[in-house]
Amino acid sequence: MGNFNKKDGERNACQLWGKLAWKGYDWWWHSFTGLNRNTGEEKAFFVEYFLCNPALGQDEPIYGQEPECLKNEWWPSYLMVKAGCWGEDARQMHRFIAWEDVSIYGAKSYRLWAGDCRASETLIRGSVKVTEEEAAEHPEWMSQAGEMRWNLKVNKKIAFNVGYGAGKLMRNLNAFEMYWHAEGMKTAYDGEVVLDGEIYDVKPETCYGYADKNWGSNFTTPWIWLSSNDIVRKSDGKRLKNTVFDIGGGRPCVFGISLDRILLGAFYLEGQPIEFNFSKPWTGARTKFNCKETDDEIIWHVEQENWNYVMQTNVHCDRKNMLFVNYEAPDGSRVHKRLWNGGNGHGWIKLYRKSGGERYLIETFRIGHVGCEYGE
Protein backbone atom coordinates (compact mmCIF):
# COMPACT_ATOMS: atom_id res chain seq x y z
CA MET A 1 0.00 0.00 0.00
CA GLY A 2 3.06 2.23 -0.06
CA ASN A 3 4.88 4.19 2.60
CA PHE A 4 3.60 7.68 3.49
CA ASN A 5 6.74 8.41 5.54
CA LYS A 6 8.29 10.49 2.76
CA LYS A 7 9.84 13.88 3.45
CA ASP A 8 9.08 16.51 0.80
CA GLY A 9 10.90 19.81 1.22
CA GLU A 10 9.31 21.25 -1.91
CA ARG A 11 5.83 20.61 -0.54
CA ASN A 12 6.86 21.95 2.85
CA ALA A 13 8.22 25.19 1.35
CA CYS A 14 6.08 28.32 0.94
CA GLN A 15 3.20 27.72 -1.50
CA LEU A 16 2.01 31.31 -1.95
CA TRP A 17 2.66 31.87 -5.64
CA GLY A 18 0.31 32.51 -8.58
CA LYS A 19 -3.30 32.97 -7.49
CA LEU A 20 -2.51 32.08 -3.89
CA ALA A 21 -0.17 35.07 -3.59
CA TRP A 22 -3.25 37.30 -3.99
CA LYS A 23 -5.77 35.15 -2.14
CA GLY A 24 -4.06 32.53 -0.07
CA TYR A 25 -2.63 31.48 3.27
CA ASP A 26 0.19 29.15 4.25
CA TRP A 27 1.30 28.16 7.72
CA TRP A 28 3.87 26.08 9.55
CA TRP A 29 2.54 24.67 12.82
CA HIS A 30 4.62 23.31 15.71
CA SER A 31 3.37 21.80 18.98
CA PHE A 32 5.31 20.21 21.83
CA THR A 33 5.51 19.73 25.60
CA GLY A 34 8.00 21.36 27.95
CA LEU A 35 8.92 20.88 31.61
CA ASN A 36 9.03 23.79 34.04
CA ARG A 37 12.68 24.21 35.05
CA ASN A 38 11.77 24.96 38.67
CA THR A 39 8.81 22.67 39.36
CA GLY A 40 9.03 19.93 36.71
CA GLU A 41 5.41 20.63 35.74
CA GLU A 42 4.44 19.74 32.18
CA LYS A 43 3.00 22.32 29.82
CA ALA A 44 1.95 21.92 26.20
CA PHE A 45 2.86 24.73 23.77
CA PHE A 46 2.30 25.70 20.15
CA VAL A 47 4.05 28.05 17.72
CA GLU A 48 2.79 28.92 14.25
CA TYR A 49 4.02 31.09 11.38
CA PHE A 50 0.92 32.09 9.37
CA LEU A 51 1.35 33.82 6.00
CA CYS A 52 -1.56 35.65 4.34
CA ASN A 53 -1.93 37.36 0.93
CA PRO A 54 1.68 38.47 0.31
CA ALA A 55 0.84 40.15 -3.03
CA LEU A 56 -1.39 42.61 -1.15
CA GLY A 57 1.34 43.55 1.29
CA GLN A 58 2.02 47.13 2.34
CA ASP A 59 4.44 48.76 4.75
CA GLU A 60 2.09 47.93 7.65
CA PRO A 61 0.06 44.78 8.36
CA ILE A 62 -3.51 44.85 6.99
CA TYR A 63 -5.98 43.43 9.54
CA GLY A 64 -9.07 41.92 7.96
CA GLN A 65 -11.13 42.36 11.15
CA GLU A 66 -10.43 46.08 11.42
CA PRO A 67 -13.72 48.02 10.96
CA GLU A 68 -12.46 49.98 7.94
CA CYS A 69 -11.29 46.78 6.24
CA LEU A 70 -14.61 45.06 6.93
CA LYS A 71 -16.54 48.06 5.60
CA ASN A 72 -14.50 48.29 2.40
CA GLU A 73 -13.99 44.52 2.01
CA TRP A 74 -10.23 44.94 2.06
CA TRP A 75 -8.43 41.64 2.47
CA PRO A 76 -5.82 40.98 5.16
CA SER A 77 -2.09 40.79 4.46
CA TYR A 78 0.66 39.94 6.96
CA LEU A 79 2.83 37.36 8.64
CA MET A 80 1.10 36.41 11.87
CA VAL A 81 3.31 34.73 14.47
CA LYS A 82 1.02 32.78 16.78
CA ALA A 83 2.27 31.34 20.05
CA GLY A 84 0.64 30.03 23.18
CA CYS A 85 -0.12 27.17 25.50
CA TRP A 86 -2.81 24.75 26.58
CA GLY A 87 -4.02 24.01 30.10
CA GLU A 88 -6.20 25.93 32.52
CA ASP A 89 -4.36 29.09 31.44
CA ALA A 90 -4.73 28.26 27.73
CA ARG A 91 -4.18 31.26 25.48
CA GLN A 92 -2.93 32.44 22.11
CA MET A 93 -0.86 35.54 21.43
CA HIS A 94 -0.50 37.10 17.98
CA ARG A 95 2.25 39.24 16.53
CA PHE A 96 1.70 40.76 13.08
CA ILE A 97 4.57 41.68 10.76
CA ALA A 98 4.28 43.59 7.48
CA TRP A 99 5.41 41.81 4.34
CA GLU A 100 8.19 44.31 3.64
CA ASP A 101 9.84 43.07 6.85
CA VAL A 102 9.56 39.36 5.94
CA SER A 103 12.08 37.32 3.95
CA ILE A 104 11.38 33.76 2.74
CA TYR A 105 13.99 31.72 0.91
CA GLY A 106 14.13 28.26 -0.60
CA ALA A 107 11.98 26.19 -2.93
CA LYS A 108 13.01 22.88 -1.35
CA SER A 109 14.20 23.80 2.13
CA TYR A 110 12.53 26.94 3.43
CA ARG A 111 13.92 29.70 5.64
CA LEU A 112 11.77 32.48 7.06
CA TRP A 113 13.21 35.64 8.67
CA ALA A 114 11.17 38.45 10.22
CA GLY A 115 12.83 40.51 12.94
CA ASP A 116 13.81 38.13 15.75
CA CYS A 117 11.47 35.45 14.38
CA ARG A 118 13.04 32.59 12.44
CA ALA A 119 11.70 29.33 11.04
CA SER A 120 13.26 26.58 8.95
CA GLU A 121 13.29 22.80 8.72
CA THR A 122 15.76 22.62 11.61
CA LEU A 123 15.02 25.62 13.85
CA ILE A 124 12.24 27.85 15.18
CA ARG A 125 12.90 31.02 17.16
CA GLY A 126 10.91 34.10 18.07
CA SER A 127 8.90 36.10 20.55
CA VAL A 128 5.38 37.45 21.03
CA LYS A 129 4.22 39.99 23.62
CA VAL A 130 0.67 41.33 23.99
CA THR A 131 -0.40 43.34 27.03
CA GLU A 132 -3.89 43.22 28.56
CA GLU A 133 -4.48 46.77 27.30
CA GLU A 134 -3.40 45.94 23.75
CA ALA A 135 -5.57 42.83 23.63
CA ALA A 136 -8.60 44.89 24.75
CA GLU A 137 -7.89 47.81 22.41
CA HIS A 138 -7.19 45.68 19.31
CA PRO A 139 -9.89 43.05 18.77
CA GLU A 140 -8.69 42.87 15.14
CA TRP A 141 -5.57 41.12 16.47
CA MET A 142 -7.78 38.20 17.64
CA SER A 143 -5.27 37.81 20.49
CA GLN A 144 -5.12 37.24 24.20
CA ALA A 145 -2.52 38.74 26.52
CA GLY A 146 0.81 37.18 27.43
CA GLU A 147 4.49 37.00 26.60
CA MET A 148 6.37 34.04 25.15
CA ARG A 149 9.85 33.45 23.72
CA TRP A 150 11.20 30.27 22.17
CA ASN A 151 14.43 28.94 20.72
CA LEU A 152 14.23 25.33 19.56
CA LYS A 153 16.11 22.92 17.33
CA VAL A 154 13.76 20.87 15.15
CA ASN A 155 14.36 17.24 14.10
CA LYS A 156 11.49 15.83 12.05
CA LYS A 157 11.48 12.05 12.51
CA ILE A 158 8.40 10.67 10.73
CA ALA A 159 6.35 12.29 7.95
CA PHE A 160 2.77 11.90 6.75
CA ASN A 161 2.94 12.66 3.05
CA VAL A 162 -0.65 12.45 1.78
CA GLY A 163 0.55 11.76 -1.76
CA TYR A 164 -1.29 12.77 -4.92
CA GLY A 165 -3.83 15.06 -3.25
CA ALA A 166 -1.12 17.62 -2.44
CA GLY A 167 1.23 16.67 -5.28
CA LYS A 168 2.70 19.11 -7.77
CA LEU A 169 -0.08 18.72 -10.36
CA MET A 170 -2.87 19.32 -7.84
CA ARG A 171 -0.96 22.28 -6.41
CA ASN A 172 -0.41 23.80 -9.86
CA LEU A 173 -4.13 23.45 -10.60
CA ASN A 174 -5.16 24.93 -7.21
CA ALA A 175 -7.46 21.93 -7.07
CA PHE A 176 -8.17 22.00 -3.33
CA GLU A 177 -9.28 24.92 -1.16
CA MET A 178 -7.14 23.55 1.68
CA TYR A 179 -4.02 21.37 1.51
CA TRP A 180 -2.21 19.46 4.25
CA HIS A 181 1.29 18.08 4.66
CA ALA A 182 2.89 16.76 7.88
CA GLU A 183 6.65 16.85 7.36
CA GLY A 184 7.12 15.88 11.01
CA MET A 185 4.07 14.19 12.53
CA LYS A 186 6.67 12.89 14.99
CA THR A 187 9.22 15.63 15.68
CA ALA A 188 11.94 15.97 18.30
CA TYR A 189 12.34 19.51 19.68
CA ASP A 190 15.29 20.61 21.81
CA GLY A 191 15.61 24.00 23.51
CA GLU A 192 13.61 26.25 25.79
CA VAL A 193 10.43 28.29 26.02
CA VAL A 194 9.91 31.25 28.36
CA LEU A 195 6.24 31.91 29.15
CA ASP A 196 5.50 34.97 31.29
CA GLY A 197 8.95 34.70 32.85
CA GLU A 198 8.79 30.96 33.59
CA ILE A 199 11.40 28.82 31.80
CA TYR A 200 10.41 25.46 30.30
CA ASP A 201 12.92 22.95 28.98
CA VAL A 202 11.89 21.12 25.84
CA LYS A 203 13.68 17.80 25.32
CA PRO A 204 13.47 15.26 22.48
CA GLU A 205 12.53 12.40 24.84
CA THR A 206 9.61 14.17 26.52
CA CYS A 207 8.35 16.77 24.02
CA TYR A 208 5.87 14.56 22.08
CA GLY A 209 6.44 16.97 19.21
CA TYR A 210 4.49 17.55 16.02
CA ALA A 211 5.04 19.73 12.91
CA ASP A 212 2.83 20.17 9.86
CA LYS A 213 1.50 22.78 7.47
CA ASN A 214 -1.74 23.79 5.75
CA TRP A 215 -2.23 26.14 2.84
CA GLY A 216 -4.90 27.18 0.37
CA SER A 217 -7.59 29.77 -0.27
CA ASN A 218 -10.09 28.85 2.46
CA PHE A 219 -10.64 26.57 5.46
CA THR A 220 -12.54 23.30 5.64
CA THR A 221 -15.63 22.87 7.79
CA PRO A 222 -16.00 20.65 9.69
CA TRP A 223 -12.38 20.81 10.71
CA ILE A 224 -10.88 17.76 12.46
CA TRP A 225 -7.33 17.09 13.62
CA LEU A 226 -5.97 14.42 15.99
CA SER A 227 -2.35 13.36 16.45
CA SER A 228 -0.02 11.88 19.06
CA ASN A 229 3.22 9.97 19.46
CA ASP A 230 2.61 9.29 23.17
CA ILE A 231 1.40 5.74 22.56
CA VAL A 232 1.48 2.76 24.94
CA ARG A 233 0.59 -0.81 23.96
CA LYS A 234 -2.06 -2.01 26.39
CA SER A 235 -1.18 -5.72 26.32
CA ASP A 236 2.26 -5.27 27.89
CA GLY A 237 2.40 -1.60 28.91
CA LYS A 238 5.29 -0.87 26.54
CA ARG A 239 5.74 2.70 25.34
CA LEU A 240 6.24 2.63 21.57
CA LYS A 241 9.06 4.96 20.52
CA ASN A 242 8.67 4.59 16.75
CA THR A 243 4.89 4.99 16.58
CA VAL A 244 2.63 7.94 15.77
CA PHE A 245 -0.85 8.57 14.37
CA ASP A 246 -2.26 11.55 12.52
CA ILE A 247 -5.85 12.23 11.38
CA GLY A 248 -7.13 15.35 9.64
CA GLY A 249 -9.68 16.81 7.26
CA GLY A 250 -13.42 17.33 7.31
CA ARG A 251 -15.10 18.41 4.10
CA PRO A 252 -12.42 18.92 1.43
CA CYS A 253 -13.41 21.02 -1.57
CA VAL A 254 -11.80 19.98 -4.88
CA PHE A 255 -12.41 21.91 -8.09
CA GLY A 256 -15.30 23.64 -6.31
CA ILE A 257 -17.01 20.39 -5.31
CA SER A 258 -17.30 19.50 -1.61
CA LEU A 259 -16.50 15.91 -0.62
CA ASP A 260 -18.65 15.37 2.44
CA ARG A 261 -17.09 14.30 5.76
CA ILE A 262 -13.82 12.72 4.66
CA LEU A 263 -10.67 12.38 6.74
CA LEU A 264 -7.10 11.41 5.95
CA GLY A 265 -5.38 9.14 8.45
CA ALA A 266 -2.02 7.50 9.08
CA PHE A 267 -0.81 5.09 11.76
CA TYR A 268 2.94 4.46 11.76
CA LEU A 269 3.25 1.41 14.03
CA GLU A 270 6.86 0.64 14.91
CA GLY A 271 7.92 1.06 11.29
CA GLN A 272 4.75 -0.36 9.70
CA PRO A 273 2.78 2.27 7.72
CA ILE A 274 -1.01 1.90 7.79
CA GLU A 275 -2.86 4.54 5.77
CA PHE A 276 -6.47 5.62 5.26
CA ASN A 277 -6.35 7.99 2.30
CA PHE A 278 -9.38 8.85 0.12
CA SER A 279 -7.09 10.20 -2.61
CA LYS A 280 -5.89 6.62 -3.15
CA PRO A 281 -9.20 4.91 -4.00
CA TRP A 282 -7.54 1.59 -4.83
CA THR A 283 -6.82 1.15 -1.09
CA GLY A 284 -10.53 1.00 -0.21
CA ALA A 285 -10.26 3.80 2.34
CA ARG A 286 -13.47 4.78 4.15
CA THR A 287 -14.16 6.95 7.20
CA LYS A 288 -16.93 7.56 9.71
CA PHE A 289 -16.60 10.12 12.47
CA ASN A 290 -18.53 12.17 14.97
CA CYS A 291 -17.51 14.87 17.42
CA LYS A 292 -19.51 16.30 20.26
CA GLU A 293 -19.33 18.86 23.03
CA THR A 294 -20.41 18.03 26.57
CA ASP A 295 -20.41 20.40 29.53
CA ASP A 296 -16.85 19.37 30.35
CA GLU A 297 -15.25 17.76 27.29
CA ILE A 298 -14.85 17.62 23.56
CA ILE A 299 -15.08 14.01 22.33
CA TRP A 300 -13.94 12.57 18.99
CA HIS A 301 -14.83 9.13 17.63
CA VAL A 302 -13.25 8.17 14.30
CA GLU A 303 -13.46 4.85 12.49
CA GLN A 304 -11.27 4.41 9.42
CA GLU A 305 -10.76 1.33 7.28
CA ASN A 306 -9.01 0.10 4.16
CA TRP A 307 -8.93 -3.32 2.54
CA ASN A 308 -6.79 -4.78 5.35
CA TYR A 309 -7.31 -2.81 8.55
CA VAL A 310 -9.84 -0.98 10.71
CA MET A 311 -8.69 1.70 13.15
CA GLN A 312 -11.01 3.09 15.81
CA THR A 313 -9.79 6.24 17.55
CA ASN A 314 -11.47 7.78 20.59
CA VAL A 315 -10.16 11.00 22.13
CA HIS A 316 -11.37 13.16 25.01
CA CYS A 317 -10.05 16.60 25.94
CA ASP A 318 -11.19 18.78 28.85
CA ARG A 319 -12.70 22.03 27.65
CA LYS A 320 -10.98 23.90 30.49
CA ASN A 321 -7.61 23.01 28.90
CA MET A 322 -8.57 24.14 25.38
CA LEU A 323 -9.09 27.39 23.51
CA PHE A 324 -10.90 28.70 20.45
CA VAL A 325 -8.07 29.11 17.99
CA ASN A 326 -8.47 32.29 15.91
CA TYR A 327 -7.88 32.76 12.18
CA GLU A 328 -9.28 34.85 9.39
CA ALA A 329 -9.48 33.54 5.83
CA PRO A 330 -7.68 35.34 2.97
CA ASP A 331 -10.93 37.16 2.10
CA GLY A 332 -11.18 38.45 5.68
CA SER A 333 -14.06 36.19 6.70
CA ARG A 334 -14.15 34.30 10.00
CA VAL A 335 -15.13 30.80 8.85
CA HIS A 336 -14.60 29.40 12.36
CA LYS A 337 -15.44 31.25 15.56
CA ARG A 338 -15.67 28.07 17.66
CA LEU A 339 -12.68 26.06 16.50
CA TRP A 340 -11.75 24.05 19.59
CA ASN A 341 -8.00 23.53 19.86
CA GLY A 342 -6.10 21.51 22.45
CA GLY A 343 -2.89 19.65 23.16
CA ASN A 344 -3.78 17.59 26.23
CA GLY A 345 -6.15 15.02 24.72
CA HIS A 346 -6.17 11.39 25.82
CA GLY A 347 -7.92 8.19 24.80
CA TRP A 348 -7.31 4.95 22.97
CA ILE A 349 -6.90 3.34 19.56
CA LYS A 350 -8.13 -0.12 18.61
CA LEU A 351 -6.53 -1.67 15.54
CA TYR A 352 -8.21 -4.60 13.76
CA ARG A 353 -7.17 -6.81 10.87
CA LYS A 354 -9.85 -7.65 8.29
CA SER A 355 -10.11 -11.17 6.93
CA GLY A 356 -12.97 -13.08 5.34
CA GLY A 357 -15.44 -10.33 6.12
CA GLU A 358 -14.57 -10.36 9.84
CA ARG A 359 -12.58 -8.08 12.12
CA TYR A 360 -9.89 -9.42 14.45
CA LEU A 361 -8.48 -7.19 17.18
CA ILE A 362 -4.71 -6.81 16.84
CA GLU A 363 -4.09 -4.50 19.78
CA THR A 364 -5.44 -1.66 21.90
CA PHE A 365 -3.23 1.40 22.48
CA ARG A 366 -3.47 4.10 25.13
CA ILE A 367 -2.76 7.57 23.74
CA GLY A 368 -1.87 10.81 25.54
CA HIS A 369 -0.64 14.32 24.75
CA VAL A 370 -3.04 14.30 21.81
CA GLY A 371 -3.14 17.40 19.64
CA CYS A 372 -6.79 17.92 18.78
CA GLU A 373 -9.11 20.29 16.93
CA TYR A 374 -12.80 20.41 16.15
CA GLY A 375 -14.86 23.14 14.55
CA GLU A 376 -18.01 23.12 12.45
* Broad structural category: mainly beta
- Give unreliable regions as ranges: none
- Rg result: 20 Å
Distance between the termini: 32 Å
Count of strand segments: 25
Strand content: over 45%
* Number of helical stretches of at least 4 residues: 5
Helix content: under 10%
Number of domains: 1
Broad shape:
globular
How is the biggest beta sheet arranged?
12 strands, antiparallel
Order of helices and strands: HHEEHEEEEEEHEHEEEEEEEEEEEEEEEE
Residue-averaged pLDDT, rounded?
A: 95
Give a concise summary:
By secondary structure, the chain is mainly beta. Helices cover 7% and strands 53% of the residues.
Blueprint of the fold:
Layout: H1 9-12, H2 19-22, E1 25-36, E2 42-52, H3 67-72, E3 78-85, E4 91-97, E5 103-105, E6 111-114, E7 117-120, E8 123-130, H4 132-137, E9 146-160, H5 168-172, E10 178-195, E11 198-202, E12 209-216, E13 223-228, E14 230-233, E15 243-250, E16 253-254, E17 257-258, E18 262-269, E19 272-276, E20 286-293, E21 297-305, E22 309-318, E23 323-324, E24 340-355, E25 358-375
Description:
The protein is mostly beta strands. The protein has one domain. Helix content is 7%, strand content 53%. The strands form three sheets. Strands 1, 2, 3, 4, 5, 6, 7, 8, 9, 10, 11 and 12 form a twelve-stranded antiparallel β-sheet that branches. A hairpin with a 2-residue loop joins strand 16 and strand 17 (257-258).
Looking at this protein, list some descriptive labels.
376 residues; 11-stranded antiparallel β-sheet; mainly beta; 12-stranded antiparallel β-sheet
